[in-house]
Automatic annotation (TrEMBL):
RCC repeats lie at residues 242-295. This is Regulator of chromosome condensation (RCC1)-like protein. Pfam families: RCC1_2. Keywords: Repeat. PROSITE patterns: RCC1_3 (PS50012). It comes from the Eukaryota.
Amino acid sequence: MELYATGSNAWGQLELDPSTPHDLNDIFEFTKIAAGDTIETPIARLVYTIVKVDGVYRVAGHLPDRSMAPKLAEVVVRANGDSLRLEKADPFLTLSKNVNGKIEEESFLVTQPIKKLVGFDTGFAILYQDGVVATMGDARFPATLGRQVTEKEPAEAFASVDDLVQLQDPVKHISACGYATAALTKMGSVYIWGQHPPSRKKERPFLPDLFAFANCTDIADGRDIEDFALGETHAIALTSDAEVYVTGNNENGQLGMPSITSTRTWTRLEFYLPQCSRIIGVAAGPHTSFLLVSNVDY
């Protein structure tokens, strides 16, 4: 397998090979940064990237204690530093908060198996094994929750995104970053909710159909989507026939298309691989994008 990356590299967060000199310039085209028999989906945060290659965690970027990589790979974080983790031994989620320099923890009972946790700037989302998605977060940003906030289901407690439950098409994957969350269903549809970052309010939304409730996003004229990832103001999608489409801002090269500064329409990425190679997954950090490539001919 191979891992390709593009985008912000100011902290060396795309420099996984310790034997090569660091070049902290942003990367504007997808470039191979790792190879191995097995490569897991990278965990990309603002100033560092963690990737498990052949069973070993590798780190790029600013992470002073790199021995923490396995633990950091098991938690999700939001912008204020709060982290959420699933306890292995007990059916609880633990939310860790820094309150006046002291770490305080709050536990949430888990009533059903969890498939994935993600964090965004103001909260968290859960994907349960049965395909249901639940969110919790800051009540000041209700659009990021994708659901009604009520006395019975307050913003600060996990509650299901009912618009997705009514689809009768279970969610198989979720991605979140910035102020938005996306859900990919088993039938290949993508639903997104949230808002454009308040700090960039002078810009047009990076997704024209970004609303407070889950909204189906038409990608590549309705093609089935195999994988999907969100950055802070960009998104990347992999179709079932292994084509990649991108949209959003490209100021750091996160779209992998050096000829444009941004796009508000889903645009096909021209990316050529050797024979017997196929893109099998995508990922994103706040200002980076990744392609997972298999060397087996499917």
